[in-house]
Amino acid sequence: MMEGVVHLPRWPAGRICLVDITPTAWEVPYHGASITLCCREGFFEDGAGMTWLTEVTCRLGQLEESLDENGRPHLTISDRLFRSLMPVGRPMPLVLAGYHMSFLRRLMGGPHDRPPFNLCLYRGLRQLCPWVADFGLQLSAIELVPENIPLMTRSGPQARFASAETLLDVLLARLPVNRLVALSTAAVPPPPEEEPLSGMSGWCNMTPDRVFVADQEKET
Question: Taking the chain, what is the end-to-end CA distance rounded to the nearest angstrom?
């Protein structure tokens, strides 16, 4: 249900945590299924792109069944895996970025109207580079930045993560972060079903919880 409009300042700088979650086996996800969570933190400056602060970290975990806000069962990542991404007492990044970020955020939990905000690579592509939006994460990145093919065609989650990094760079070169976050609430068609988690409930839910409006002037 729509909750209201949130105005976003044009942030001069901040931290972004890029995340990706993949199943260990290509099958319909279930309670207890093994997954891999990859993440990397970086620092953005308005108009200057990303400076990565950490290396890519990949951790194994499991999906667990819990209840959503309506009392219906749904799958989430284990609390242990979530705490490896967001340790208690550690300052949160300004933005969480990922391919289908609203879906990933539902897997991880947390409110969407304050940091960390969602930056959805897929929604950004759908609006800024629509000719590749139906290709999926890796093929979209290869189409847009073919010189990165050696990094993006390896086996395993590292190749997907290199593709996500490439798409984040592409989007940051086009718009400020606050505008990319605002685009991440747009109602668009769902991502391709060829993606590894597309069999999970909620994959096709593209209804935003909030509407974000991005200020054009830089925050002082």
Answer: 33
- Tell me how far apart the alpha carbons of residues 178 and 16 are, in angstroms, rounded to a whole number: 12
10 beta partners: 218
The number of helices, as runs of H, and strands, as runs of E, in the chain is 7, 9
Distance CA 153, CA 145 (A): 13
Q: Find the length of the chain.
A: 220
Dihedral, CA of residue 44, residue 20, residue 116 and residue 81, to nearest 10:
-130
Between β-strands 211-218 and 5-10, what pairing exists: parallel, antiparallel or unpaired?
parallel
113: domain CATH number?
3.30.420
SS3 151: helix
- Domain holding 92, by residue range, is 5-218
Beta-sheet pairing, 95-98 with 117-120: parallel
Provide the number of structural domains found in the chain.
1
Paired with 77 in beta bridges are 63
Report which secondary-structure segment, H or E, holds 171. helix 157-172
Residues 116 and 17 sit within 8 Å (Cβ to Cβ): yes
Tens-of-pLDDT digits for all 220 residues of the chain? 445 678 899 999 999 999 999 998 777 778 888 999 999 999 999 888 899 999 999 999 999 988 777 777 788 888 888 888 887 778 889 999 999 999 999 888 655 556 799 999 999 999 999 999 899 999 999 999 999 888 887 777 788 999 999 999 999 999 999 999 999 999 899 999 989 899 888 899 898 767 788 887 665 4
What is the distance between the alpha carbons of residues 40 and 168, in angstroms, rounded to a whole number?
Answer: 12
